[in-house]
Amino acid sequence: MHHRLSRCVCSSGARSSGDSSSRRAFTLVELLVVIAIIGVLVALLLPAVQAAREAARRSMCLSHLKQLALGLHNYHDMAGKFPPGGLRSNTFGLHVHLLPFIEQQTLYATANFNAGTYTDTTANGQLGRGALGLTKIAIFLCPSSSAQVMMQGGANAVNAPDLINGVSPYTTHYYGNMGPKGTSVTGVAYTLRNVGQGGFSQHGIFECDVSRNFSDIVDGTANTLLLGEISRHDQQYGSRFRNWVRGCDASASDHIASSRNIANSINTLVPAGSSTFNDIAMSSHHPGGANFALCDGSIRFLSQNIDLGTYKAVASRDGAETRTLE
């Protein structure tokens, strides 16, 4: 009996030793290899994830422009014309006039349209002109840009005179097409009113103290830009973002903050100290171009490599140019 027990114990010990060796842990080298593989996979997938997110943001940006274009069409149906790019009398820009047509009737009802400036905070018991800008309007902003409040001269700069009660008001990334500058593809010089800060092109849809209608778009609504995007805010581009309320300055005949001339290619550098405020180029953080709405209500992404002559041609409502976006 004692002999059999000894043999049994020895056999059990042998099995225990074998099981231990079959469950050995990873070596350090193997662990590092696994970590390296995971790192490679993440590096490969991250650009795809970022690209998908940017595609979604660009799509949302286009949706914002679509809503604004439809709002402008509804305004035109009601008034028989588009809103002015800005008014010197109360310094309001086109975005204020658009409020009732983008489901912002309550905010619009607080606006004071009497004479004054966009930096007013109160007037006759109503919310002042500039203070409207303390309300964030989501469809005025591109989701690819972090510049949501007023800035001047770069990503973090602010312009103290435009502050409302010490606070930077919200801005807009969508601007009216004031028209082209320079010479057309047919060799005709585009007409310009005033010269300070780039002046006002006479060939677009929006301008200071001027309202136009569909009958003025003789080149065709499908061939004429209505709105464009300026949302790029890095230091290199020196973009200037102002209160979305602001249109034309009451004291200066040459500034307009709600609309832009088409004088430079998309994503063109415009120095912060430039004296051509009205010529700040359309720009965005969407790779390769920016988003636009056309006068027929359609929306599209335009490449920064678009021929400048063609770009100016579609910015003109009455130039009889032969070039289109098709």
TrEMBL record:
Residues 11-20 have a biased composition (Low complexity). It holds the Pfam family SBP_bac_10. InterPro entries: DUF1559, N_methyl_site, Pilin-like, Pre_pil_HX9DG_C. The keyword Signal does not apply. The keyword Transmembrane applies. SUPFAM superfamilies: Pili subunits. It comes from the Bacteria. The chain crosses the membrane at residues 25-49. Residues 1-20 are annotated as: Disordered. Gene3D superfamilies: Glycoprotein, Type 4 Pilin. Keywords: Membrane, Transmembrane, Transmembrane helix. Residues 50-308 form the DUF1559 domain. This is DUF1559 domain-containing protein. The lineage of its organism: Bacteria, Pseudomonadati, Planctomycetota, Planctomycetia, Pirellulales.
